[in-house]
Amino acid sequence: MSYIAHIRGSDRQIQTVEQHLIEVKELAEMYGEKIGVKHLAGLAGMLHDLGKYTDEFREYIIEAVANPDTPPKRGSVDHSTAGGKLLYELFHTKESISRDKHKGIVAEVVGNAIISHHAYLQDFLNPDLESNYLNRVRDKKLDGFEHAKQCFFECVMNEDEFHRYVDKAARELETFLAKEAPEHNEKQLMFLTKFIFSALIDADRTNTRRFEENKKDEVSSDPIQRFHTYYERLMSKINAFNATTPINLLRKEMSNQCDQFAANPSGIYTLSIPTGGGKTLASLRYALKHAKLHHKKRIIYVVPYTTIIEQNAEEVRKILKDEAHILEHHSNVIDDMNDHDENQDGMINIQQKLKLAKDNWDAPIIFTTMVQFLNVFYAKGSRNIRRLHNLSESVLIFDEVQKVPIPCVSLFNQALNFLKLHGRSSMVLCTATQPALDFVEHKLDVNADAEMINNLDRVIKAFKRVEIIDKATNETFTNDRLTDFINLKIQVVQSVLVILNTKSVVRDLYTRLQTNEQSIPVYHLSTSMCAAHRNGILAEIRHHLKEGNQIICISTQLIEAGVDVSFECVIRSLAGLDSIAQAAGRCNRHGEKGLQHVYVIDHEEENISHLKEIKVGKEVTKRILVDLKRNKKEHGGDILSQQAMDRYFKEYYTEFETNLHYFIPKIKKEMTELLTAAKSKSSYYKAYIHNEKKHLPLFLINSYKTAAEYFHVIDDVTSSVIVTYGEGKEIIAELNGSRSIEDLDYLLRKAQQYSVNIFTHEKDQLIKNDGLIYYLEGKVMALKEGAYSDEYGLDIKNESGFQSVIF
After folding, report:
1. Where are the alpha helices (DSSP H) in 588-636?
2. Which of 68, 91, 413, 727 has the greatest number of CB atoms lying within 10 Å of its CB?
3. Kind and range of the H or E run holding 676
4. How far apart are the C-alpha atoms of 213 and 223, rounded to whole Å?
């Protein structure tokens, strides 16, 4: 009798359990080999669906596929526990551990990945002082477990071969741990568990997808050959550009230095090109050459804002002449963070199709955000962590790295250190304002002589194109007064850019300026607009700037980091010094007109009480401005000097010193303790011993699930929602139809250009005002027509449809 892993929806073809386990094992081995853990990952692959070797599951899947519209019966078969239980019973006994403790650790690391593959990693010890892991692998009784083991050893791998395989996995673990001192074991094992889990999730979903689509293994093209072609195309572009102005000659010199630096070994490096210095192409040049020389599989750009993704990805596509292989990943359009879908395994419904959609960052060049990067390592939901293994053997460019959210600094540093030590990856911290993080407890392991650019002081001086005018220390502005100030400036310059800290004051100022009698075009940009909408507005803005037309643009901070625009005059509301430097980079970007003015103002109508990082940044910058006003020679007499920037970051991070390790107020614990604390330093473990009067029989006591539940890169959780702008309407209509996995792939990727992220309170208001609609069994949200304005973007009042009716 054949035991069934999956039944194909189109032709009712069966994939047997042994076929699935062997194929997932082979894929997982390939993923694990990247960091030297082939057998650890393969072990997870071959055991993950061991529990399908039962008559119960066979009957369940036949019934589920025959009646797809009927929900699975309560208490449907648990098939994910058996693989973890097998490892625990064979290798976590006192006798086995006394012979080889590494096999006991293998049972925990791999076993946790197996039992969790339909949800998220379990806690070894949770806040209630219980072990979800032990409850499953040790205490839970499984009907048919002995029979499942027998089938596995008969059909997949015999016992002798299996024990030899586990021996190899244990030796891999030993080698992995030997790379750092024993006191770092918990941290290494945390990242190893997550890597194995990632490899298993991706291998399982990839194999299931291929079976469901009836496709053979995809043949991957040679990334080195592709990078070689890309590099030649980039160099053709660079060589065709005749640099004659001093700034362009300096850009060329820095680009050449990045090219030469690419020969250096893999590691963590810094690229401190000043704003407007051509960081994108210089870093791409380094990345392509480094990838060629050191056999990297992909290049990943990580940026703070989606606006930079849109612009940079488009620029890179044009230069490299490749539309198909450059992926933008802004956000997760699918809401499946809380899914536990074991009871639906084998059913070909919408939820399973969405799960199988290709979303694993398996592309040669990827543009994504810092939020998505951190989610890969720390957020709940298997969709995020599925991508983790693809960060190995990569070049990662962190654009504007100073924007790492304060609570995530230690977590960010630990993730990069793992990718350097174990992942065989290279990281470039790319910014005009390198943050001073020398005093952080969990330090970033930056290489010696890490800076790619020579004579930085000379370069910074040569790139001086603006003068900062301080209008913040002795006066404040309202939108009324700011309107008058802008009207005054636009009489003497052709273009004015105003950057404020909150969306509400931006919108109010934009409305005021529109009522002006002048016929000068006024534009408005904010994160309330979807990517396609912002791109359209930016295209119009660039056209006006290129033609020399008069123009005013009012924006939130999204425009200041990496958006290639050049205004004659910039007005920036007081914020962090790094933000002011970035805003200055949007003024006189190419040194067109000698020194131009950037005005720093203090806007009294901005409510930033809940924006702590902006609030503290503003306070520290104001202190430096006051000192410069008292003594013009302070910090070299320049608010944007390296001395001023060093002082800014030191004072800024000192203000947040207690919150650099992601403190969780609700449980009064730091995330770093939940994830990486040794037994001797874990308050949960100490409490367990005190309460139970005995030791917990585990090597690991990490609280993976609890940590993920509390992890949010920004304080307020956001959800992605598709909007009714442009092609967004068509995407919504197409998603609502019956689609193949391939169709869903395409539509979900395209939907990112037509999505906005909404906060919980905005979501609540939209629901209250009937502005939200759900598709695909509640997994995808979309706005109704009236909840999106062609002028302002998101309208939580759902009133934007009324105007066209009235007029």
Report:
1. 612-630
2. 91
3. helix 671-676
4. 25
Q: What would the pLDDT profile of 675-708 be if each residue is shown by its tens digit?
A: 998 888 889 999 989 888 788 999 999 999 999 9
Percent of the chain with pLDDT over 70: 90
Looking only at the bridges linking them, the beta strands covering 596-601 and 466-471 are: parallel
Residue 172: HSE in the Cβ half-sphere, 13 Å Cα cutoff: 26
Closest alpha carbon to 702 in 670, 666, 673: 673
Rounded CA separation 501/505 (Å): 8
Q: How far apart are CA 720 and CA 227, in angstroms?
A: 33
Asked if residues 29 and 202 have their Cβ atoms less than 8 Å apart, the reply is: no
* Low-confidence winner among 267-271, 478-482, 584-588, 749-753 (lowest mean pLDDT): 749-753
Q: How far is CA 652 from CA 434, 603, 613, 620, in A?
A: 13, 21, 9, 7
C-alpha 744/C-alpha 723 separation (Å) is: 17
> Which pLDDT belongs to residue 485?
96
What would the two tokens of residue 165 be? 């395989």
Q: What are phi and psi of 241, to 5 degrees?
A: -85, 120
300 residue type, one letter:
I
- Are the beta carbons of 364 and 354 closer than 8 angstroms? no
Question: Is the C-alpha dihedral spanning 354, 355, 361, 362 positive or negative?
Answer: negative
DSSP 778: T
**640: closest CA among 580, 702, 704?**
580
Of 119, 96, 120, 92, give the one whose Cα is nearest residue 108: 92
Task: Report the C-alpha gap between 389 and 111 in whole angstroms.
Answer: 18
CA angle 744, 749, 754 (to 5 degrees): 110
Q: How deeply is 672 buried, as exposed, middle or buried, from its count of CB atoms within 10 A (0-12, 13-18, 19+)?
A: buried
Q: What is the DSSP string of 427-448?
A: EEEE-SS----TT-SS---PPT
d(CA 100, CA 107): 12
DSSP state at residue 797: T
Mean pLDDT of 139-166: 95
Query: In the 8-state DSSP scheme, what is residue 564?
Result: -
Answer yes or no: are the C-beta atoms of 702 and 190 closer than 8 Å: yes
**Most distant CA pair in the chain: distance in Å?**
87
pLDDT score recorded for residue 69: 64
CA 228 – CA 256 distance, rounded (Å): 17
DSSP string, 307-375: HHHHHHHHHHHHHHT-SSSEEEE----S--TT---GGGTT--SHHHHHHHS--S--SSEEEEEHHHHHH
Tell me the pTM: 0.85
